[in-house]
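Curious: can you check?
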Amino acid sequence: MSDFAYVNARLHAEGVALEDLATEVGTPFYCYSTAAMESRCEAFARAFDGLPATVCYSVKANSNLAVLREMARHGAGADVVSGGELARALKAGMAPDKIVFSGVGKTAGEIDAALEAGIAQINVESESELVMVGERARAHGVDAAVALRVNPDVDADTHEKISTGKVEDKFGIDLPHAADLYARTAAMEGVTPVGLAVHIGSQLTRLDPFREAFSRIAALVHDLRESGLEVRRLDLGGGLGIVYDGETPPHIADYAALVREVIAPLGCELLFEPGRWLVGNAGVLVTRVIRIKEGLSRRFVVVDAGMNDLLRPALYDARHRILPLNETAPDAEESPADVVGPVCESGDSFAVARPLPPLAEGDLVAICSAGAYGAVMASTYNSRALVPEVMVRGKVHAVVRPRQDIDALLGLESVPGWQEADTD
């Protein structure tokens, strides 16, 4: 989070004081640093320099159009998992030939949209999906490039709700069936198998699961080629972890060295789908302390952001650093506190018994590392309107999504005519 730092005791995003943004747009709000995104994009590119590698940014991590445009500015394509994400990627200027469509439940309409856009490939996750892709491609009079997403049955050693590569997970084609289905794909009309895809989970903090999964994919490539089948492209997914609060994930250079050792000798085009790694540490959620509630045994710091704004702690038991916007003295005494939101759920909590400096009602704090799976997962639960998103570049900023007006939220709904008549 080097692009979020204290300057004259005030927490800044690059050259902009977050406190000033809070005065302008109100709280809570998300703030993103373009410098943080840029440095991550450049670091990823350096790590794979010399390899035929393409970054397909995982749109689900943060799908704001300004974020997508920033990724496109640095040459990234997109990994999408819905028709809506495909539309966003195209609107943001991402090249269709750098877009891959993943996901286990693509509809016929979404497949049609992908074919019409001419994207790079569709990652097929089941035999029935393959049949549908072939049918839709023939109806469009085109040949669909597909990659078979393989489930290598590897434990990613991550939270169970973000594990995607074990045999009991819903994703991908079981490894023992992959070779046969690939051969049948090569014989089908309307589809051309261009390679394989694999993604074993998110927020991985060790390289061992990657090594195991990549080794199994490499062995499958050898088997397919020995059978006379062409494999020219490998989509290695994403999943490399970031620092939220004390983790020690692998360095990107070490991850790249593993790819060079295990995968590069195959001579395939390589696709990567980083999301969290590119944007996770590029964002914060700024929120204001509403009140301090002293219980019999606990101190509650109640803030105006809720689980509807940032779901990760409630959904994944995620731990985010929490920093006051006004720097506290080095010798300030910390005491345990539960940081909770106003949503009417016991799970609406951002921290439990967290050592925090003294906080008072009206103080501002930043929930760190909220650039991925933050605003994109937000909801209007409890009829709480969606919060603003702000992007900073140097000393300038722009509101890239305004605060949703409650009237606009209500305007999405209507009552049936017979109920209108009841009011006459």
Notes: Residues 4-31+281-410 form a domain with the Lyase, Ornithine Decarboxylase; Chain A, domain 1 fold (CATH 2.40.37.10).
